[in-house]
Amino acid sequence: MELSPYAQGGWRLLGDPRRFPRRPFAALLRAAFRSLLDDPRAGLDDPDLKDIDPTVLKHCHAAAATCILEAGKQKADISAISTCLEDCKLDKERIEQFCTEYQHRELVTVVSFSIGRSPLHITDVSWRLEYQIKNNQLHKTYQPSYLVTLNVENSDSSSCPDVSFSCTMEQLQDLVGKLKDAAKSLERATQM
């Protein structure tokens, strides 16, 4: 099981007992599982989290949620999760705490990925070129980027929000290449 560098950075912060003592760590894990499995609108309003910097808190919540989703998606066992978290410099106690929480929720995780969810189907794509002159810190950037909107539909429900993202030319070229590879693989699979 692998996590993105951003998620690994969040787990490194979570592994630091000075930034996240025992109670805030446990509260953040509960919040991450709750927001994914019980109530998507659940926030980070636990009193144990009030002393944590909001930016760090959001980063760490995203890291925990990413790990939960990856583990559920890959149906990862405890040893794979432990290895992944060890790579992020978590101590044995925190790894065991996460794995215990994951085991209690594992059945729910697997079920939540399989009930009532079908893949989105892309029906149309629109894009436009954006040229960024300054970023939010007012540094001059002069970077072109593409704003891409995928119009999607889901067979489970009548309406789905469009998927929008911004990317550089290199990222867009990479995406197009991967989509072409996927289309070729699908074409070969249907010819068998």
From TrEMBL:
InterPro entries: COMM (IPR017920), COMMD3 (IPR037355). It comes from the Eukaryota. Residues 121-190 form the COMM domain. GO terms for biological process: sodium ion transport. Belongs to the COMM domain-containing protein 3 family. This is COMM domain-containing protein 3. The gene is Commd3.
